[in-house]
Each structure stands twice: as structure tokens, then as C-alpha cells.
Q: What sequence folds into this?
């Protein structure tokens, strides 16, 4: 069904929305799993790694956990697809290098890039809000099958700079960063997860639940949110352009 919105900014979820969860789980997750040990051993002194390891130790309530225990916790979170912030930070470091090296190329559903280009050309501001870290998001858009898409995207938000994706305050933080705190109804959030859509709506945003067959949340649906099976079902007008 076609959906029409009068908004200024679109905020995009990645996994399940712009891109296949299967690709993330089958390609990116194994890539990070096989490299956590080396990252902890060889770059354990890097400030970002130090910070993430401290967060892992806090989450597992083991202040003295050694590298092997930290790696075990990271792999357990991978197995259950738990989107823990330090896991995402460390994955982001590993994936960024993999994308830069040419080992990895990101994935987008066929309907996504034409829509993003059309919206961008029409003056719609595009942003990302994903559990994947900002570093991972940057690499993901830079290394797409159609080249560098980063120029299309203005703001990148994750669970560190915005907060948890199922809390309304995180969406208020993003709206403030976009200069739209007073007019949150000028923002449209696209996601596959009902809990994220609920939180965005609680912050005053428009929402569309993107439902793609085969994605984990497809059967569950998106409750009473507007829904679309692909981005070409979403039309954006800008009355204030
Ligand atoms: C480039 S981000 C990689 C995907 C990922 O790790 C992730 O957790 C995405 O979650 P999302 O919030 O986009 O559903
Ligand atoms: Mg998602």
C-alpha cells in the first residue's frame, strides 16, 4: 500500500529495513567472530578497545575477566543476536577494516538505493539510526555494491550517541541533533522492529514499519504503524521546501 508523508528528514534502520538480516548474520557476524581474539590481543591498548572491554566486563559483572572470557561473552551475544553496545563497537572496528580492505561489500535491497537517491535529490535529509556502530554504518554506506553512498547520508546515530533503540528519549536526542526538537512530526522513521517504531512514535515522529518476507519480524508485523513492503511504496513531499 502506498504511503505519503510531508516531512523533512528520514531516519533509516539498517538490518531488516534497508538491508537483509541474513547478510548481516551470515557474512558480517562470522567475519567478526573470527577476528575478536586477534583484536583483543593486538589492539587491547587502543582507547576504543579499552572502553568496549570495560563495558563488556561491566555487562557480565566480571571486573577481572581476561581476554578469553571477554571473547566468550562477545561470541555468546553473537549467537543470540544481542545488540550489546560494546559488541557493536568492536564489530565496527573489525568490519571497517574489512570494508576498507575490500573483503566486505555491503548489501541493500533492490528498492532502497533508487528511493534514497530520489529522496536526497528532492531535498529530503537522510540519516541512519542503527544498533550497528557509527563506524560500521560509515563503512557500510561507503562500500556499497554501487560505490560510495556516504554523500547521501547526513547524520549517523547508534546506541552510544543516541541511546537504546526502544526508548523514546533516544529519538528525542536525534530530533534535537537534527534541529527538529520542536517539530518532531517532520521526521519519518523506517524500521522493521515494532518496539523501535513505538519508541519513535512516542517521541512524535512519523513511522513506517518495513515488512519484507523472510525477515525475522515479518510474521509478527508492525502493529498499528503504517507499513510498506518496499521503499517504493513510500512517497515523500516537502511542503516547507
Ligand atoms: C552496518 S550495521 C551492521 C548491522 C548490525 O550489526 C546491526 O546490529 C544492525 O541493527 P539495526 O539496528 O540496523 O537493525
Ligand atoms: Mg532493524
A:
Amino acid at each position: 500500500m502506498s504511503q505519503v508523508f510531508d516531512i523533512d528528514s528520514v531516519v533509516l534502520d539498517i538490518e531488516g529495513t534497508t538491508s537483509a538480516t541474513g547478510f548481516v548474520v551470515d557474512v558480517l557476524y562470522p567475519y567478526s567472530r573470527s577476528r575478536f581474539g586477534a583484536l583483543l590481543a593486538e589492539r587491547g591498548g587502543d582507547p576504543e578497545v579499552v572502553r568496549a572491554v570495560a563495558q563488556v566486563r561491566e555487562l557480565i559483572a566480571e571486573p577481572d575477566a581476561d581476554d578469553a572470557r571477554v571473547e566468550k561473552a562477545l561470541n555468546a551475544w553473537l549467537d543470540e543476536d544481542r545488540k550489546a553496545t560494546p559488541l557493536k563497537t568492536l564489530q565496527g572496528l573489525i568490519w571497517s577494516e574489512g570494508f576498507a580492505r575490500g573483503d566486505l561489500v555491503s548489501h541493500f535491497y533492490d528498492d532502497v538505493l533508487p528511493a534514497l537517491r530520489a529522496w536526497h535529490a528532492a531535498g529530503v535529509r537522510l540519516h541512519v539510526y542503527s544498533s550497528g556502530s557509527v563506524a560500521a554504518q560509515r563503512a557500510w554506506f561507503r562500500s556499497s555494491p554501487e560505490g560510495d553512498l556516504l554523500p547521501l547520508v547526513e547524520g549517523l546515530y547508534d546506541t552510544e550517541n543516541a541511546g537504546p533503540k526502544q526508548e523514546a528519549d533516544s529519538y528525542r536526542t536525534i530530533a534535537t541533533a537534527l534541529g527538529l526538537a520542536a517539530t518532531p512530526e517532520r521526521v519519518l522513521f523506517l524500521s522493521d522492529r515494532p518496539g523501535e517504531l513505538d519508541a519513535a512514535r512516542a517521541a512524535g515522529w512519523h513511522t513506517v514499519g518495513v515488512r519484507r518476507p523472510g525477515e525475522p519480524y515479518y510474521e509478527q508485523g508492525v502493529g498499528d504503524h503504517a507499513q510498506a513492503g518496499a521503499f517504493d511504496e513510500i512517497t515523500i513531499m516537502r511542503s516547507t521546501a
